[in-house]
């Protein structure tokens, strides 16, 4: 059992989880650590995430560490010393956010950046090494039902063969296009008129000024770029967000490098040189949807993007799913399932909505026009690195309570 794992206080439940992304895998580990038996179903047959990094702020990294994953994270992740904020066209430094030792000292856990595939590998290895977890691949969740004995989850294989899992509860962690979310909240996704272009490049090919152990954030009118080292510091992850119409697309939609370069033709020299390097970009058209109301009912709980997609202006999509997993596991301690899931929904709904709202606000700040940008830049410059970090104490300082009612 991982360090700091609670000792189960009653016989474990049978739990079915739809989706083996970051949230589903973390939930499986957190639930198994409390003595529950977990079946984890994933529609994909291969686990790969190309051209995608993610950020693990202290509110997420401490949960993964408590699950026993600290040594693996330290080997695969990078710990940036700061976020350096610059004007996209001018290249002028606007401000900084202190990370590195300052983040660990203030919040008791590191701020890490990691390739999504590396984190998924760490989680998968842990799941496969846990006797209480069964992993089924090539199965899509198609239906949920409550029964007299508990709940059932219907799965369909790529060949069309259906099977039904019996469980005490079902967790829908099946992503932003969740099939099961409609059982609780049928509001549709709403395109927001922007897209995130993602790529990675070898670190030693990047302009020398952008090879440091830091996160770069470049702000421009209607656009921004983020980059940071991943893969043990060997590569740089690039995310460029720009206006783009269309419906939401999958991670693997290809983008034309010439289109990306044209959108950032006015970028400052080091950034322009960096954006010219990738030969392949993957495009994700951004979509938004309010957190499900409720996030759980009866014997069904939503988790991660299935419950509350978060726009990428606060770097909290993965972190929020990891938080969900920890609170869900704590909620089930000593309660009957419906009451436990009601406590989970009560604990998570307000925080999810707050983070969604702050991410939308950050997007407006990042992409501000000339006059608003001047005011933004003045505030960031005046605050300084430590006070910029402190503005997010409410976010990074969050810790899972032993009981979800106090979360």
TrEMBL record:
Gene3D superfamilies: FAD/NAD(P)-binding domain
Keywords, ordered alphabetically: FAD, Flavoprotein, Membrane, Monooxygenase, Oxidoreductase, Transmembrane, Transmembrane helix
Matching PANTHER family: GERANYLGERANYL DIPHOSPHATE REDUCTASE, MONOOXYGENASE
Phylogenetic lineage: Bacteria, Pseudomonadati, Pseudomonadota, Alphaproteobacteria, Hyphomicrobiales
MF terms in GO: FAD binding; monooxygenase activity
Name this protein carries in UniProt: Monooxygenase FAD-binding
Domain of life of the organism encoding this protein: Bacteria
Cofactor: FAD
Domain named FAD-binding: residues: 15-356
Pfam short name (any one): FAD_binding_3
TM stretches of this protein: 12-33
């Amino acid at each position: 059992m991982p360090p700091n794992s609670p000792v189960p206080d009653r016989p474990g439940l049978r739990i079915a989880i739809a989706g083996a992304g970051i949230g589903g895998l973390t939930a499986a580990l957190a639930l198994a650590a409390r003595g529950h038996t977990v079946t984890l179903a994933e529609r994909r047959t291969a686990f790969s995430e190309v051209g995608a990094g993610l950020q693990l702020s202290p509110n997420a990294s401490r949960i993964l560490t408590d699950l026993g994953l600290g040594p693996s994270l330290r080997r695969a992740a990078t710990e940036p010393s700061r976020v350096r904020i610059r004007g996209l066209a001018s290249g002028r430094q606007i401000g900084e956010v202190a990370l590195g030792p300052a983040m660990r000292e203030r919040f008791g856990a590191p701020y890490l950046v990691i390739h999504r595939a590396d984190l998924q590998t760490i989680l998968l290895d842990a799941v496969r090494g846990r006797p209480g977890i069964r992993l089924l691949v090539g199965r899509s969740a198609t239906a949920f039902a409550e029964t007299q004995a508990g709940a059932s989850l219907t799965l369909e294989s790529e060949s069309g063969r259906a099977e039904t899992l019996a469980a005490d509860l079902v967790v829908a962690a099946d992503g932003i296009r969740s099939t099961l979310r409609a059982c609780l909240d049928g509001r549709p996704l709403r395109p927001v008129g922007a897209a995130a272009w993602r790529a990675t490049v070898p670190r030693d090919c990047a302009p020398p000024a952008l090879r440091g152990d830091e996160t770069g954030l470049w702000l421009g009118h209607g656009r921004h770029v983020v980059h940071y080292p991943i893969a043990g510091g060997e590569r740089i992850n690039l995310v460029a967000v720009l206006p783009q119409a269309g419906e939401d697309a999958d991670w693997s939609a290809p983008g034309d490098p010439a289109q990306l370069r044209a959108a950032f033709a006015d970028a400052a020299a080091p950034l322009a040189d960096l954006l010219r390097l990738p030969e392949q970009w993957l495009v994700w058209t951004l979509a938004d949807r309010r957190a499900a109301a409720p996030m759980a009912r009866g014997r069904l709980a939503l988790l991660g993007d299935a419950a509350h997609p978060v726009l990428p202006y606060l770097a909290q999509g993965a972190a929020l799913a990891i938080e969900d997993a920890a609170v869900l596991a704590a909620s089930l301690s000593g309660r009957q399932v419906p009451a436990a899931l009601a406590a989970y929904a009560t604990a998570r709904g307000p925080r999810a909505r707050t983070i969604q709202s702050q991410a939308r606000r950050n997007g407006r700040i990042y992409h501000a026009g000339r006059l608003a940008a001047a005011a933004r830049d003045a505030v960031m410059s005046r605050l300084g690195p430590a006070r910029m970090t402190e503005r997010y104490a409410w976010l990074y300082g969050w810790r899972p309570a032993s009981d979800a009612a106090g979360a």
